[in-house]
C-alpha cells in the first residue's frame, strides 16, 4: 500500500509500498525512527485513514472499498484502539467510558454495562468502576482505555505507543496485560512502540524505515524467555 499526503504542489509519500500480512492471534510490534510512518500505517490498518493506493483485506473483505457508514460499523465491530493518550471522557466513570463503543455499536445498555464491567475486571479494575479518569492513576486510566478497546471483542487490537506516557513499572503492568490478552483471548495485537524492551519480548518485530518495512523478525519472544527462565537452575 502507498500513502501520500498532499500539501499544495508537494506530495509527501509516507508509506512507500508496504506489504504486510498478519495471522490471526499474532502479536507484532512495529519499531522504527520517528517519522518512519508507523502511526500512519496503524491508522490505515485501523481504517481511520485510507491508503492512497492499494488494498487492505480483512479475510475476504477489502476495506478500502467500503462506504463510510460500512467502514464505521466495520471498525466498531472488528478493531480496538489504544493510543498513547487515553482519550477517556473526563465527566464519565470508568464503567461509562468502557461502555461507549458498545453503545455506539447499538448494544443494549444493560448488556453494554455487563460487558464493560467484565472487561474492567479483566484489566484488574473491578474496584474502580465508578471512578472518573481524574480519580485514577495513569496506569489505571490506560487500563480503562484498554477495557474500552476490548468491549466489542475486536479481532484486532491496534496500540500506538500504549505505554509511552507511563513510568517503567506501570508500563510493565500494561505490557503484562497485553501479553495476557494475546495469550488468553487469542487476540491479534499490533503495537507501535519505541520501547525496545517490549519489542524484544514480542514474537514478531517489524522495523520501518522511511515508509518501508525493512526488517521482519520472528522469534520466541516472551514465551521463549519464560521457558528458558523456567529451565534455569
Ligand atoms: N496528516 C498528515 N499530513 C501531512 N503529513 C503527515 C500527516 N501525518 C503524518 N505525516 C507525516 O508522515 C510522516 C510519518 O508520520 P508518522 O506519524 O506515521 O511517523 P511515526 O513513525 O509514527 O513517528 P513517531 O515515532 O514520531 O510517532 C512524518 O514525516 C509526518 O510529518
Question: What is the element layout, followed by pairings?
Answer:
Blueprint: E1 2-7, E2 10-16, E3 27-32, H1 38-45, E4 57-58, E5 61-62, H2 68-78, E6 79-82, H3 94-104, H4 109-122, H5 138-150, E7 156-160, H6 168-185, E8 188-192, H7 196-201, E9 204-209, E10 212-218, H8 221-231
Parallel strand pairs: 3-8, 3-9, 6-7, 7-8
Antiparallel strand pairs: 1-2, 4-5, 9-10
Short overview:
The chain is of the alpha/beta class and 233 residues long.
The fraction of residues assigned to DSSP E strands is: 15-25%
- Count helical runs: 8
CATH architecture title of the largest domain: 3-Layer(aba) Sandwich
Number of domains: 2
Strand order of the largest sheet: 6-7-8-3-9-10
CATH topology of the largest domain: Rossmann fold
Distance between the termini: 48 Å
* Small-molecule binders: adenosine-5'-triphosphate
Kindly state the percentage of residues in helix: 25-40%
Mean pLDDT across all residues, rounded? 91
Biggest β-sheet strands, sense, barrel: 6 strands, mixed
Q: Globular, elongated, flat, extended or rod-shaped: what is the shape?
A: globular
Radius of gyration: 18 Å
What is the total tally of β strands?
A: 10
Quick one: CATH superfamily of the largest domain?
A: P-loop containing nucleotide triphosphate hydrolases
SSE arrangement, N to C = EEEHEEHEHHHEHEHEEH
Low-confidence stretches: 227-233
Amino acid at each position: 500500500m502507498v500513502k501520500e499526503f498532499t500539501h499544495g504542489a508537494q506530495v509527501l509519500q509516507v508509506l512507500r509500498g508496504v506489504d504486510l500480512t498478519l495471522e490471526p492471534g499474532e502479536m507484532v510490534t512495529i519499531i522504527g525512527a520517528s517519522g518512519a510512518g508507523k502511526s500512519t500505517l496503524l491508522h490505515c490498518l485501523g481504517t481511520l485513514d485510507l491508503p492512497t493506493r492499494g488494498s487492505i483485506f480483512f479475510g475476504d473483505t477489502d476495506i478500502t472499498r467500503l462506504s463510510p457508514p460500512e467502514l464505521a460499523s466495520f471498525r466498531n465491530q472488528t478493531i480496538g484502539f489504544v493510543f498513547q493518550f487515553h482519550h477517556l471522557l473526563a465527566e464519565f466513570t470508568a464503567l461509562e467510558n468502557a461502555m461507549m463503543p458498545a453503545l455506539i455499536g447499538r448494544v443494549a445498555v444493560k448488556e453494554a454495562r455487563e460487558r464493560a464491567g467484565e472487561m474492567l475486571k479483566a484489566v484488574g479494575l473491578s474496584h474502580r468502576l465508578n471512578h472518573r479518569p481524574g480519580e485514577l492513576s495513569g496506569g489505571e486510566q490506560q487500563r480503562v482505555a484498554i477495557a474500552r478497546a476490548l468491549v466489542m471483542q475486536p479481532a484486532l487490537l491496534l496500540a500506538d505507543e500504549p505505554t509511552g506516557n507511563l513510568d517503567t513499572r506501570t508500563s510493565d503492568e500494561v505490557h503484562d496485560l497485553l501479553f495476557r490478552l494475546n495469550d488468553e483471548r487469542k487476540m491479534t495485537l499490533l503495537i507501535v512502540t519505541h520501547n525496545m524492551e517490549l519489542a524484544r519480548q514480542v514474537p514478531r518485530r517489524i522495523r520501518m524505515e522511511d515508509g518501508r518495512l525493512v526488517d521482519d523478525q520472528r522469534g520466541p519472544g516472551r514465551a521463549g524467555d519464560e521457558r528458558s527462565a523456567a529451565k534455569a537452575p
